[in-house]
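WARN retry 2 of 3 for item q-0093 after timeout on previous attempt; input resubmitted unchanged.
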Amino acid sequence: MLNVPAPSFPVPSSQQRVSAGGRNKTPLKPGRSLMDWIKVKSSGKDLTGLKGRLIEVTEEELAKHNKKTDCWICIRGGKSTENAGKEILNGAFSNSKHPQEADKPIHPRYDWFQTDSTVTMVIYTKQKDMSSDRVTVDYQENILRGEITVGDYSYLLLIELSHPIQNFEVNASGRTGNVELILQKKDHNVWKSLGQSLEGHDTFIKNSQRGIYYRKCRLSSLTEINHNTRLFCFELPQGCHLQVPVGHHVYLKITISGIEVVKPYTPVSQALITDLLKSSQDNEQYLYMMIKIYPNGSFTPKIDTLAIGDYVFVSSPRGCFRTAQVEKMEDIFLVAAGTGFTPMVKLLRHVLNRASNLRKVKLIFFNKTENDILWREQLENLCLTDKRFEAQFILSEPSDLWTGYKGQISHSLLSEAVARSKKDSKVLTCICGPNGFIDQGTRFLEGLGFSQEEIFVFRE
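OK item q-0093 returned
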């Protein structure tokens, strides 16, 4: 018989045998124990040096930090913070399980962390084209209301904060779809909780199902545009972040004889041509409305009686226009009648500044008389400063001195006015005005071969 030694386990010199006699412990230097870490984590101090801000880090950048002296971490695949091991995460997550509809975007979720001076809420929307004009925030009497538009849906945060704040900042990332609300603490103390959730908090529903929210805005200035149109400037209240996206509108609400009356208006720029270098964040505190006064109207005569310092109620933005619709267009036609010009103001500035493939943008502007043409001088100046832009004025009741185009919207007039710059150019035609004008214009455009995808209607 062979003399085979009995098997032994653990194998001699293995790690299991080495530590079989007891657990080896590694002594920690003073100040690095678990209790010391808990104290640091609960201190509320900004140990990252980022003042509560998250920074975007690419995968390539993250891969560079692979040494023992680096302490970098990628959180949920979208954000990273330098020295993230020192970050104070408080984790008020949206933990509820939400049923997902087939065509509904992913339900956003949020968490938060704090430093000694700030609390940062991060909302994860997963929308790569997210921007700050899709976020409205109102802070009043320690209640924070944040509404984020995600496609046709509305996500709501509604919290009574556990501590007061001085102000806040809104940041949105088109790369990651994340929205940051950076709250500046009034007192530099540690928040044990974000606050009390109120009814409607963390809900994600269709925009049409969300009740319209209003805030009280002060009339700051009033400018005459022509004989019957005024430019009203309304100042947003403190603690309000509201930017109206291109092609969207708001509702104005006033009380007339004890009855609340509401009417939609599209905010415009302060001027058609402005010095972008002089624009500041302060301008975002104002909304400009170009309003035509109808003497026999039910709403505008009351608006016309407002004095500087009076208040009206202004809603959050509404609308379905997406700037992605115009960014790749080569030809853009804007067909407007009267105050139907107002949705075209911001759109015109946007396409001239952002549409990279744009060859031509043309405004076909219908009015009764010369005096009715809104911002005529500014439009003519824009024609001179940007050769891609053309304005065509058409009057239905011209004076004998008028030498320009005459008539009303028609198939023959549009066939000449909306000629493409080349046969197969990518084109979008936007139309706005009274309902009868829109219905006629849409039929004529379809008769000229424009598809439904090449026509966008703004309803007054």
